[in-house]
Amino acid sequence: MQIVLASQSPRRSELLKQLGLNFIIRTSDIDESNSMGLEASELVQHLAFEKARVVAEELKLESDFIVIGADTVVVNKGNILGKPKDKQDAFNMLKSLSGEWHEVMTGIAVIDANSFRYDKSVEITRVKMKDLDDETINAYINSGEPLDKAGAYGIQGLGAVLVEKIEGCYFNVVGLPISKLSDILRNYGVYVLK
């Protein structure tokens, strides 16, 4: 059984490697807009499933593949924050998060490419940001780190100094709730701990 990660995120790839899983990466180009107006928790599950589904359909005739899809957003006061469009957008996101609690939601989907049996779930972690002054926000943006991250920060990098505390799964904030994922993978005969 071959595991496929349907994501180009280097953070997700690192987390899977940390679990000692052998996997390949295949990405899909899907529309990540919220054109259906879904709630954030439904949206991330839908997008994770769509990423995994497209890859699973491409692989279904080749061999035994288990495809993992994931999608992460930051939700602040009901607003869904994806990746910033530019530095100004990153600044606005970080300013809105300053001193506030927000939620990080990651949807995960696992699909058996042969049978198309699937599981999908969402993990939610609460994060409290420190009060951030403009100088700190701009210095962080100038590091380049926030420009490819949901909510314009990465807790596993320099962004860690912006975070006051979290409630829930740390790895979810990085982009892949590995404890929940390992539980789902067991349904497909993949055991992280044997």
Total beta-strand segments:
7
Q: Which percent range describes the beta-strand content?
A: 25-35%
- Average residue pLDDT: 93
Q: What's the CATH C level?
A: Alpha Beta
Major pleated sheet = 7 strands, mixed
SSE ordering: EHEHEEHEEHEHH
- In the predicted model, the low-confidence regions spanning at least 5 consecutive residues are none
What is the CATH architecture assignment?
Alpha-Beta Complex
Q: Could you estimate the helical fraction of the residues in percent?
A: 25-40%
Rounded Rg: 17 Å
| CATH fold node name | Maf protein
N/C terminus separation: 15 Å
Topology overview:
Blueprint: E1 2-5, H1 10-18, E2 23-25, H2 40-59, E3 65-76, E4 79-81, H3 87-97, E5 101-112, E6 118-129, H4 134-142, E7 163-167, H5 170-174, H6 178-186
Parallel strand pairs: 1-2, 1-3
Antiparallel strand pairs: 3-4, 3-5, 5-6, 6-7
Helix pairs in contact: 3-4
Describe this structure in words.
- It is elongated, with a radius of gyration of 17 Å.
- It has one domain: Maf protein (Alpha-Beta Complex), CATH 3.90.950.
- The chain has 6 helices and 7 strands.
- 32% of the residues lie in helices and 26% in strands.
- Strand 5 and strand 6 form a beta hairpin.
- Helix 3 packs across helix 4.
- With 194 residues, it is an alpha/beta fold.
